[in-house]
Design brief:
- The chain is of the alpha/beta class.
- It has two domains: 11-32 and 65-193 and 208-321, Aldehyde Dehydrogenase, Chain A, domain 1; 326-511, 3-Layer(aba) Sandwich (Aldehyde Dehydrogenase, Chain A, domain 2), CATH 3.40.309.10.
- The protein has helices at 110-125, 134-150, 152-163, 167-186, 224-237, 252-263, 278-285, 299-311, 335-347, 367-380, 399-414, 446-449, 465-473, 488-497; strands spanning 19-22, 30-31, 46-49, 76-78, 81-83, 90-95, 100-106, 196-197, 203-211, 214-218, 241-245, 271-273, 292-296, 317-320, 325-329, 357-363, 418-421, 436-439, 456-462, 477-478, 480-484, 502-505, 510-511, 520-521, 524-525, 538-546.
- The strands form eight sheets. A seven-stranded mixed beta sheet has the order 17-18-19-16-15-21-22, with helices on both faces. The chain has a six-stranded mixed beta sheet with strand order 12-11-10-13-14-25, sandwiched between helices.
- α2 (134-150) runs antiparallel to α4.
- The longest helix has 20 residues, at 167-186.
- It starts with 18 loop residues before the first strand and ends in a 7-residue tail after the last strand.
- Bound molecules: NADPH dihydro-nicotinamide-adenine-dinucleotide phosphate and the ligand CCCCCC/C=C/C(=O)O.
- The ligand CCCCCC/C=C/C(=O)O is lined by residues 32, 173-174, 177, 222-223, 226-227, 296, 320, 353-355, 511.
- Belongs to the aldehyde dehydrogenase family.
- GO terms for molecular function: aldehyde dehydrogenase (NAD+) activity.
- Residues 82-543 form the Aldehyde dehydrogenase domain.
- Keywords: NAD, Oxidoreductase.
- Pfam families: Aldedh.
Length: 553
Amino acid sequence: MAAMSKGAPALGLALKTSEVKHQDCSSSSANFSSSSTRRRSRSGVGRVSMHCRAVLATEQVEAPIKSPFPVQYTKLFINNSFVDSVSGKTFPSIDPRSEEVAVEVAQAAAEDVDRAVKAARKAFEEGPWPRMPGCERAGIMNRIADLLDEHKDELSALDTLNMGKVYDMARLGEAPLAIGLFRYYAGWCDKAQGMTLPTNGPFHAYTLHEPIGVVGSILPWNAPFYLLAMKVAPALACGNTIVLKPAQQSPLSALLIAKLAAEAGLPDGVLNVVTGYGDTGMHIASHMDVDKVAFTGSTQVGRQIMQAAAQSNLKPVNLELGGKSPFIIFGDADMDAAVESAHQAIFYNQGQMCVAGSRTFVHESVYDEYLERAKARAEKRVVGDPFKPGVEQGPQADEAQFNKVMSYIRAGKDEGARLITGGERVGSKGYYIQPTIFSDVQDDMKICREEIFGPVMSVIKFKTVEEVIQRSNQSEYGLGATVMSKNVDIINTVTRSLKAGIVWVNTYGILTPSAPFGGYKSSGFGRENGAYALANYQQVKSVIMPICNPPYL
Ligand SMILES: NC(=O)C1=CN([C@@H]2O[C@H](COP(=O)(O)OP(=O)(O)OC[C@H]3O[C@@H](n4cnc5c(N)ncnc54)[C@H](OP(=O)(O)O)[C@@H]3O)[C@@H](O)[C@H]2O)C=CC1
Ligand SMILES: CCCCCC/C=C/C(=O)O
């Protein structure tokens, strides 16, 4: 775990500081708090120097820096081969820095999803993957992790090009976390066992944990590499085969990952990637021969996926959806840590995180001090080309996201929240937005109720522990939460009272493969990561047989 020290709060990957500690993926815990046209080192702890120049948030962002890696793969990946879509159709992948087409990518329709499902079905029913001893599957998964590690810079560059993620944060932070998930689940391949059961008669009873079959994985664009690993690694470990759809905004890294997995020895048809729009995802969710679907994305689409699953073959579903996570700063909190952690909690990844700390509750005794310091920190945030060393914030992922965030900023102003800093676009090209802070935010304001998914901090004053618990829970969502306090009694009361799937205490954004991740309420259901995720990808079968003269039951 990244340790927190006074004055250097939760900054495993912060790029604002002159030096950044990053973690080995084999230790695999890290802190991400650091630093359409749609609709149409592995070897120990490393250190990296980041010299950055503060860029005024209003400064025009320069012409896009060329990606250090060319785009190699843009076709569908089915049965371990790159293929065109049946129709030959492609869709444009837009660079959010320039708003221009970076590359055309194959667009999968129903017949392409069918092809991928057939390949996955054949691999499941006849292929070696589910039949292989767990230790052999583990060997292949560890080789996949090795290859991902070798290509982590390239994978990160693809995500940066696709959706504007800060390149250094991707390769130094998210990539090791994602690779760590492959290694962690490699360890589960020969351990996901059933139980021998005591019985109430002369019977021998036991459970078998079997792979579920063909798994559909539908991904969002905000953390493409990590969220792919979160779904693919446990599904593979349990012996399943997969049809995966990355988001239209971020198709490229998934294609390279599938190619590398094949190179590592993953048999034909085990991991298939179909790129396309939402209709491609819907073909997966409603497919009669897909046995399970795992989804991360908006609550609205999560509902549609559940309906499609119910109306087709009643496939089980797990959903990881939106959030409106409280970040609670009590009067006794370490203010250096609170200011920096709250900053990262909402501004990391341009605010495009399901667990973004998007409601900053601050105790009245430190409210004014907090506002002053939060404003100063936001105004130092380096906004610019995400490939440029030292930059902390790139563009929003696409035009739709940019417009959505700007409309929430307008709503905040219209509803009477006080704009403390930011609130404008940066430059005139690319989807860049100033780090924005509103104070005097009230619970009934849109910016306090709805997921903005952007760099917009909403600061809310509170007086008592009971009040902040009640107001934190007064949300349709329940994904993450953070508590900053030195008082262990307050910490214990609040952590147990919050309706959230993950609560960070005096830190923010620590992820470790063993810790389950998922939501309460409209943030979805089911848990990913850790041993809990195995249940998403296994059938449990009871076997009961008579036994003669058993010496015990
Ligand atoms: N929980 C989280 O981490 C995320 C939350 N969100 C929230 O959702 C908002 C909208 O983002 P958006 O990208 O539109 O998220 P979506 O929920 O639309 O997209 C997530 C994934 O679902 C696919 N999809 C879209 N429609 C369907 C459908 N009807 N059936 C099956 N799959 C479908 C998308 O495909 P495609 O993109 O190709 O159309 C994408 O692969 C964000 O502003 C944010 O508030 C978004 C992303 C992640
Ligand atoms: C370092 C990347 C962390 C991703 C954390 C999980 C995010 C989920 C989501 O936004 O859906």
